[in-house]
Every structure is written in structure tokens, then in C-alpha cells.
Design brief:
The complex is a heterodimer of chains A (about 350) and B (about 220). Chain A has about 350 residues and is of the alpha/beta class. Chain A contains 15 helices and 11 strands. Chain A is globular. The longest helix of chain B is centred in the middle third of the chain and has 24 residues. The chains are: A alpha/beta (about 350), B alpha/beta (about 220).
């Protein structure tokens, strides 16, 4: 039994865990820039979000640029848009030398994320997970997405070296996230969606596996987009859970997923959660819940992080609808989902 | 066309499919020297090759890295062919102005679409990333395209597409062009809502959509 399964059983009812981060900034009327650079601001936004939307997994705001920014790369930082990395300087292995002695843990913004975790670590009745960027995605930020994609075929040695470097950076940060009070980490590996299953195993999977094995806590792998073809490769990483995006047909693939892997998802964060119709949110949550009925290895969530402009009443509806489930223990002490209504 | 010429076209097509970036320009140069016309090489070797690449991607038999390398291989062939096509007065299937919208620095999807469109015979004016509404308007005035193609990867930037369409309307240019949009968080519903003429879920379907809209 993995760490996430143990937590679900201890938790006592089926967890509901939409990926709420940015919408908290609306509740505190602060900008994303303020939240992503200041621990107290982000803490207050996450607390405000948790008060209104008491999800069972508490998450900070999703930011793929934390680690690469801590390495010293230039990050564009608009007030209310996701930060974006502006340079991708690695062209050859020797280009990594300038980063090898960088202590990412001294970076102020990375420190603010660790302090946010620490501030949130005592909240009762919920797990706290940190986000860390995946090794291949960090390597992609260092090299550029197109460049690393082509290099997986034309310059494999370089990719192996950059990903190995990235994996060590991620590990350092992930260990600190757990030390700061997180119960686990969600490894954000969106760039892996570019890869074939074999390439995912070669360039991402083994490093994700190493990270999951090393960490004391829950490990969840999140990959955006249509990842059905990558399912086996992602399961082979040995993570406790897979957080997958809306294009994946959960009811259609759940029978192919080992019961030891918790599937987390996957209401569409834009098409459904961004709608102006709460009835559509309710219908989608009910449809997914019905499709996954009887599967113990499922956590109802959104397919990806909710955008800043998500209507708050849609998140209300998501949680109200999702809570209409109970989770009695069966004879062997395990859990299963049943409708209460 | 004799068998030797057919073999040369097949060789070029195979080089694109295999992503032979080191060999493609020699093959194209040899084909031209053997008397093959530039537009024949484009329409009977490069375009079919990229269509196969797109089909394979949609079937899950080819992935983005392979697709990118095939597209780069095709671009290297076009570096030789484009000047010759211009000299011969061969008009492209259509003209496309493409860019990633303001605030968004992601280029991989946009560049794949651009390359698939080039492979389908379009002339592509690639404005790059972080393109403002004013820059789109200026490019439309300059290049007089059939299409404007916009890309966004972020939910925070996809909303900027509407501002570009509005800017084209205000400039009096909207009625002359078709607007197609794409990017991971987008949907047909979103495209309809902002007044775009089409939505493409991936690069292969973008090229098909453009050809359908233009009646090519």
C-alpha cells in the first residue's frame, strides 16, 4: 500500500481535491505576482480559498518557474498571468557548468514557497502537497521545448545530462518541501506530453521514479494534455498517484490502471469550470463520479490548475456536488465509493 | 515522368519522413539538377510527406519530436525551393500570418502549425511569440493573408485572442481574412465565443482546416 492509499484510508471518506490555487488570489484581491513572490500573501490567499472551498488536498499556487528562476534564469512576471521563462541557454553539456554551484535554496522566491508550505502545514483535516517541476520539464525550460524534443532523437546524450542535472535540482527542492511540512509533492511534468511512451520512460520516467522512491511522503505525477498513450509509462514510475488532464477518458482507462495507482482528475478546468453555467459543472462532476463509481483508486479533481478567472460559484458547485458521496469501509478495511443520494 | 524522377521524389519524401536533415538538401539539389520542377518536388514529395507525418501523429504512431524533425527537414528543402518557386511565378496555396498571442512565450505548437501549413503549400509569415494586437494588424496590412492563425498555451493568455480579433475589426480588416485559433486550453466553443472562424486541436488538423476554409 502506497502513501496516498494509506492517507485516503486514514482520511475516512473519498477525498475531493480540485487544483485550486490562483482563484484564491481573487478572494484576497491580490495579484498573482504578489502571491507568487510573497509567502504571507500566498498563505492568506490559500487560506481564503480553503475556507470557502475546503478541498481535501491543499495546494500552493502552481508555478513552473520556481526552480528555473532559482537557478538564475530570467523569468517574466506579469501581474496576473503565469510567470514565463524568457531564456533557454543550454545548448551543450558544458553550458550546465554555470549552474552547478548554484544553491537554489537561497533564492528568495523559492524560499517564499517553502515558507508558504510551512505556514499551511498545521491545517487539520487535509493533506498538504507541494508542486515541484518534473525533471524533463525543467530540462525543457533550460533548453527550450522544441530543442529538447528534437534532441531526444538527435542528441540523446545531451538530454540525458541535462535531465540528470534537473533531477538533482528537483530532488533538493522536493526534500525541502517535505521538510517544510508538505505531506507530499505533485511532480509537474507537462513537457513530457510531447514524448512517445518509450521516450517518456527513458528521459523522464526513471528520474520521476527515483524521486518518488527517495521522498518520504505522497508522490503524484501530473502531466497535462492527452496522455492516454503514456499511461503505462507513467504508471511504471511507481508514483502513488497520477493527476491527469481533461482529454483523458477516466472511465475508459481506469480498468487498465493498477489499483495501486490513484487516479486524480479530471473535470475540464477551462471548458467546464470556466463556464457561466453551474448546471454544467454539476452535470460534469456527476457524470465523472458515475463513470468512476466502484473504483477505489480515484480522487475527484480538476484536470489541471484552475485559472484565475474561474467563476467562484463553479468551484462551490464542484465541491457541493462532489461531496454527495460517502466512503464506508468494507470488511477488509478498504474503502469504496457509494452514492448517498 | 520517368521512373528515375519518381524515385527521386520518393527519396525526398522518405527523407522527410525519416527526418534526414543531413541529407535532404543534397537530394533536392540532385532532383532539380535531374530536371524535376520545384513545384513538383513541393507538391509530390514534401506535401505528401507532411500529410503522412500529420496522419501518423493523429493516429499516435508518431510523436512531437519526430514531427518536429520531419518539419525541420522539410524546411531545409524549402530553403532551396522557395526562391525557385518565386522565380517561376508559382503562387502559394494561400498566405497565413501566424503568431503566439501577447503575454505568451510558447512556440512549439505554433511552429508545428506553421511548418504543417508550409508543407501544405501555404506561405507562412511567422510573427513569433508575444505578438500584440497592433503587430497582428500591421502584419495583415503588410502581407494581405488569407488567414490569421493565433496560438496560446495559457489560460491566462488565451483571452488575448479576442482583443486581436477586435483590433482586426477596428482596422477594417476582419472581413477580408479568416481567423483560426489553437492551443492546449482552447476548444471549438471558445473559438465560436470569440468570433474565430475555426479551431484546430493540433498541427495536422490546422493544415486541413486551412485548406478546407480556403477551398484548396
Amino acid at each position: 500500500m502506497n502513501a496516498l492509499q494509506r492517507w485516503i484510508i486514514e482520511f475516512g471518506h473519498p477525498p475531493v481535491a480540485p487544483l485550486i490555487g490562483y482563484p484564491g488570489a481573487r478572494l484576497t484581491e491580490t495579484t498573482l505576482r504578489q502571491n507568487l513572490s510573497d509567502a504571507e500573501t500566498q498563505t492568506q490567499s490559500i487560506l481564503a480559498a480553503h475556507k470557502r472551498w475546503p478541498a481535501d488536498i491543499i495546494l500552493p499556487m502552481m508555478d513552473l518557474s520556481v526552480e528555473v528562476g532559482a537557478l538564475g534564469l530570467s523569468v517574466r512576471f506579469p501581474d496576473n498571468e503565469s510567470p514565463t521563462v524568457e531564456e533557454h541557454p543550454i545548448r551543450q553539456a558544458s553550458d550546465l557548468d554555470r549552474f552547478r554551484n548554484t544553491d537554489i535554496l537561497t533564492d528568495p522566491r523559492l524560499q517564499s514557497f517553502l515558507r508558504t508550505l510551512s505556514n499551511l502545514s498545521d491545517l487539520p483535516d487535509a493533506a498538504l502537497c507541494a508542486y515541484v517541476v518534473g525533471p524533463f520539464t525543467l530540462a525543457g525550460l533550460l533548453m527550450g521545448a522544441s530543442e529538447i524534443a528534437m534532441a531526444t532523437i538527435r542528441n540523446r546524450d545531451l538530454v540525458h545530462q541535462v535531465v540528470a542535472f534537473a533531477a538533482r535540482v528537483v530532488e533538493v527542492y522536493a526534500v525541502e518541501c517535505i521538510a517544510a511540512g508538505a505531506d507530499g509533492v505533485i511532480i509537474l511534468e507537462p513537457t513530457a506530453t510531447l514524448l512517445s511512451p518509450a521516450a517518456l520512460e527513458e528521459f523522464s520516467g526513471r528520474h520521476v521514479a527515483g524521486l518518488a522512491e527517495q521522498l518520504e511522503g505522497i508522490s503524484i505525477l501530473h502531466v497535462c494534455g492527452q496522455t492516454t498513450a503514456l499511461l503505462d509509462a507513467m504508471c511504471n514510475t511507481g508514483v502513488d498517484g497520477l493527476s491527469l488532464d481533461a482529454p483523458v477518458n477516466f472511465p475508459g482507462i481506469i480498468d487498465h490502471v493498477p489499483s495501486s495507482v490513484i487516479m486524480i482528475g479530471n473535470v475540464d478546468p477551462v471548458r467546464v469550470m470556466g463556464t457561466d453555467d453551474t448546471g454544467e459543472v454539476q452535470a460534469e462532476v456527476e457524470r465523472l463520479r458515475a463513470g468512476m463509481a466502484g473504483h477505489r483508486n480515484f480522487i475527484l479533481s480538476t484536470g489541471c490548475d484552475l485559472p484565475l478567472e474561474t467563476p467562484p460559484e463553479n468551484i462551490d458547485t464542484f465541491l457541493i456536488t462532489a461531496r454527495q458521496v460517502n466512503h464506508p469501509a468494507d470488511d477488509d478495511g478498504n474503502q469504496h465509493c457509494e452514492e448517498t443520494t | 515522368m520517368n521512373d528515375t524522377k519518381r524515385e527521386r521524389l520518393a527519396g525526398i519524401q522518405q527523407a522527410v519522413l525519416a527526418g534526414d536533415m543531413d541529407g535532404i538538401q543534397d537530394l533536392v539539389t540532385a532532383a532539380l539538377a535531374a530536371g524535376l520542377e520545384p513545384d513538383t518536388i513541393l507538391s509530390e514529395a514534401l506535401t505528401p510527406a507532411m500529410a503522412i507525418v500529420g496522419d501518423d501523429y493523429e493516429k499516435g504512431e508518431r510523436f512531437v519530436p519526430e514531427m518536429l524533425i520531419s518539419a525541420e527537414t522539410m524546411k531545409m528543402a524549402l530553403e532551396i525551393l522557395h526562391p525557385l518557386l518565386k522565380e517561376d511565378g508559382i503562387a502559394p496555396v494561400g498566405v497565413v500570418v501566424i503568431g503566439t498571442v501577447e503575454g505568451d512565450l510558447h512556440d512549439i505548437g505554433k511552429d508545428l502549425v506553421a511548418m504543417m501549413l508550409e508543407g501544405a503549400g501555404f506561405r507562412v509569415e511567422n510573427l513569433g511569440v508575444d505578438v500584440s494586437p497592433a503587430a497582428f494588424v500591421e502584419a495583415v496590412r503588410t502581407h494581405r493573408p488569407n488567414f490569421v492563425a493565433m496560438s496560446a498555451l495559457l489560460t491566462t493568455t488565451m483571452v488575448n485572442m479576442q482583443a486581436i480579433i477586435e483590433a482586426l475589426c477596428e482596422a477594417g480588416l476582419r472581413d477580408d481574412i479568416r481567423v483560426i485559433v489553437g492551443g492546449a486550453p482552447l476548444s471549438q466553443e471558445f473559438a465560436d465565443r470569440i468570433g474565430a472562424d475555426g479551431f484546430a486541436a493540433d498541427a495536422a488538423s490546422a493544415a486541413r482546416l486551412a485548406k478546407t476554409l480556403i477551398g484548396a
